[in-house]
Amino acid sequence: MKGVSLRNKILLLFLGVIIISSVTTITAVLLATNESVEEHAHEQLNVGRKVFEQLLNIRGRQLFDSAEVLTADFGFKGAVSAGDRETILSVLENHGARIGADLMMLSSLDGSLIASTDIATQQRNLFPFAELLPQAEEDGGLLTVVMLDGKAYQMVMLQVNAPVPVAWASIGFLLDQNLANQLQDLTHLEVTFRGEAKDQKGFSISTMEDARNGAGQSTLLNDEEWQRMSLNDNDYLALLTPLVNTPMYQVSAILRTSLNKAYASFSPLKIQVLLISLVALILSAISAFFIAKNVTRPIHALVMAAKRISGGDYSEDILVGRTSKDEIGELATSFNVMQRGIADREEKILYQVYHDTLTGLPNRILIREEMNKLLQDYQQTEQCFSVICININRFKQVNDTFGYQIGDELLKAFVSRLQSVVKQGATPGRIGADEFLVLHTGTPEPQLPDEINRILSELNTNYMVGEFDISITTCAGVATYPKHGDRADQLLRRADIALNEAKLKKQDVAYYELGADEKYLNQIRLINDLKQAIEQDQLVMFYQPKVDLKQRKVTQVEALIRWFHKELGFISPEEFIGLAEQSGLMPALTRWVIKNVLNEAVVWREQNVNVAMAVNLSAYDLAYDDLPNYVSDLLVQCQLSTESLILEVTESAVMEDPEQALNVLHQFKSSGIKLAIDDYGTGYSSLSQLTSMPVDELKIDMSFVLKLDQSKDDQAIVRSTIEMGHNLGLSIVAEGVENRDSWALLEEYGCDKLQGYYICKPQSSSDFIQWYANYDVLSEYQA
Asked: Which parts of the sequence belong to the HAMP domain (predicted)?
């Protein structure tokens, strides 16, 4: 460099160094920025995928919870076991509407469709997912994504155990535009659901209008996980997430983030870096180095923060740019807002997974986890804990009478009371619509009954809900560790069995009894066999006569059902009638009885046996308004007058739902059929209620007649009842007549009809006809 002064050389050298340094710095910054954009896009898509997967998992848990509630419902299991398609479909529709499910199906174990809320599937009468049943059976349940009629569903398949597997319940949530929009709100990414199938049309659901119309799909050249694509001159980075891939169909989710927007957000930063570099040429190399250093450091910090967030760590705020108002500071602030938002949403979602949304109590999932912790803690000790299932009696009537909003407020008030009455350390939870559970610790087993009675007595009270003063009662089933089991599911099931026993026997508290599992299985078997016995006419009718003291002859018989099981022998009516009421078979059983009794009456008329047939009705029969029409049609078919039939109802049956029961009884009365109050004196009706019943006869319960000749108290009760009944215009029947002395007393008191073993035991039809031909009431007086 001849002719150049040393100063200029130093200046040129300095400028050269500064220029080279500036160019190098600018280049490094640009490269780092582009790399940061790429990494941020990747991390954003990874975060989006994690959020999406977590959302699907949460929906899956909700599906499993809903399926478990459905499959655990005793009435539903009874309907499934009984094969009652109408009840099954009604339960599926109601349960689906309650949880917001888009698809509810029930199939047999071999893959045959039983019921479906999807009309097209129901019309085809074909269960479309039979090929998934083997995997569901192997895994104990299945959560997957399926395609049906050009739509994708997230579906859970769970067995219905009663208690052995009897069917498969399938519940599905639609992968629709709402889910795509929800995911976009959570991740700020463009979301597309795409499905292709061989034998059905494909679909595309997207938050991008062009993608919904099919544009840009061709730019996805392959099924690689990471892809670049262009749509309307915009570059996107896409992440393909397969949801299901079978030979018949494939469903995938595509998450996109705009690279143009990402690069554009860094454009101001690039201009600033360039200006800073130009200033650095004038100021000094040290200033250039300082500026470069302070530019690259925050970018690096943002990249590291993005990696930390993508790993699920939202605990630390990004400090870079906290006080800066430039783009880097805004980006850091946005990162902080984003990670706090994601953390809050995750916390809310996880809370909903483990808690009941209405009451805030732990749900079955969290209760089971708490039980497992207790089991682990108590394994090496001699301590015990109890699982107390509590049911609100007649809660459905509260909803029907006051509406669901009042019902929900009542549940909240009940939960508040429950939390206040249980001891500290006990864990209350909600496991069903009107069923609650208390995980009770710290009370020795001998003191447990007093503690449970205390809890129930404080729960059984009036609750002020708005303007309504609502009185409720509860019942409970109890299982204890280690006496009744050493596994969480086992204890929960056995507490539920005890609760069912309390409901059946109308007890306040029932404790699980060893062997009750077998009894439960036997009840399920009897319910199934009883349904078959009704359908195949395997039941028989016995008849017990009633003697009319005024006419001095037999004028009526009471029809009594009997079941002689082909394997188990004689089954007591007290046992199988209760099961029929629980399982919903009572209407069918009553119709079978009335039909057979009236057909028997036709045969008897041909043999000159002219007596009226008395048939018992239960509370469940009075719940159906169509029963009077059914009976009237049968009388017409058999060409019998209404005087040929007497229907007997108990006081307690009427008191189950007085308004409904009286409505049905008035329909019978208006058609000319005689009605009788059975077992009078053991129910709960008042005299005013008795006068409102459209009855013709009053049957005094046998408990007052069996020892009538020996008990002065019974004589006073029977005499006054007969007098009262006659004053009300009723005919009086005394059942349980065991001897001639009781006969004489009843005749002295003016009783109209007698029934009991002294006259005749219940007999088969053929035996009764023979007895009827030989029996003479006058011989009683001659003797």
From this structure: 293-347
- Is the fold of 364-514 the same as that of 523-782? no
Tokens read off for 376: 């682990």
Q: Give the containing element (helix H, strand E) for 436.
A: strand 435-441
β-bridge pairing 753-755 and 731-735: parallel
Domain ranges of the chain: 364-514, 523-782
Q: What is the pLDDT of residue 378?
A: 81
Q: Give the 3-state secondary structure of residue 550.
A: coil
616's tokens = 């018992």
Half-sphere exposure of 660 (CA within 13 A, CB side): 15
State the virtual CA torsion across 391, 392, 397, 399 in degrees, nearest 10: -100
What tokens appear for 188 in the block?
């700020």
> Which strands, in side-by-side order, build the sheet including 142-148?
113-116, 103-107, 165-174, 151-161, 142-148
Residue 494 tokens, joined: 């056995």
Residue 582 per-residue DSSP state:
H
Residue 496 tokens read as 């539920």
Peptide bond preceding 446: is omega within 30 degrees of 0, i.e. cis? no
pTM: 0.48
Q: What b-and-e string marks burial along 145-172, b requiring 16 or more CB atoms within 10 Å of the CB? A: bbbbeebbbbbbbbbbebeeebbbbbbb
Confidence at residue 297, expressed as pLDDT on a 0 to 100 scale = 63
List the strands of the sheet with 249-258, edge to edge: 203-206, 190-197, 249-258, 234-245, 226-231
- Under CATH, which number does the domain 523-782 receive? 3.20.20.450
Q: Where are the beta strands (DSSP E) in 181-319?
A: 190-197, 203-206, 226-231, 234-245, 249-258
Q: Give the 3-state secondary structure of residue 67.
A: helix
Q: What span, in angstroms and rounded, lies between the C-alpha atoms of 764 and 767?
A: 5
Rounded CA separation 732/690 (Å): 14
Q: Collect all residues with Cβ–Cβ distance below 8 Å to 323 and sequence separation of at least 6.
A: 329
pLDDT at 347: 66
Q: Say whether domain 364-514 belongs to CATH 3.30.70.270.
A: yes
Q: What is the pLDDT of residue 698?
A: 92
Specify whether the CB–CB gap between 628 and 667 falls below 8 A.
yes
The CA distance from 56 to 59, in Å, is 5
Peptide linkage before 482 cis (omega within 30 of 0): yes
Residues 635-689: tens digit of each pLDDT: 999 999 999 999 998 876 676 677 788 888 889 999 999 999 887 876 554 565 6
CA angle 362, 368, 371 (to 5 degrees): 105
Helix (H, G, I), strand (E, B) or coil at 379: coil
Q: Which residues of the chain have pLDDT under 70?
A: 1-18, 22, 29, 210-224, 265-267, 269-270, 273, 277, 280-307, 309-328, 335, 339, 343, 346-347, 350, 515-517, 652-653, 655-656, 682-689, 783
Side chain identity at residue 673, one-letter code: I
Q: What are φ and ψ of residue 754, in 5° steps?
A: -125, 150
**Alpha carbons 61 and 173: distance in angstroms, whole number:** 12
Q: pLDDT tens digit string along 115-140?
A: 888 888 888 888 888 888 898 888 88
DSSP per-residue letters across 12-42: HHHHHHHHHHHHHHHHHHHHHHHHHHHHHHH
Helix spans in 118-244 (H): 119-124, 133-139, 177-187, 209-212
d(CA 262, CA 239): 16
DSSP lists the bridge partners of residue 256 as 190, 238
Q: How far apart are CA 693 and CA 676, in angstroms?
A: 10
Tokens 């479309």 found at:
128
How far is it, in rounded angstroms, from Cα 256 to Cα 191? Answer: 6
Take residue 269 and report the two structure tokens written for it: 């930063």
Q: How far apart are CA 214 and CA 212, in angstroms?
A: 5
Q: Are 477 and 499 in contact (CB under 8 A)?
A: yes
- The shares of helix, strand and coil residues in the chain, as percent rounded to the nearest 5, are 55, 20, 25
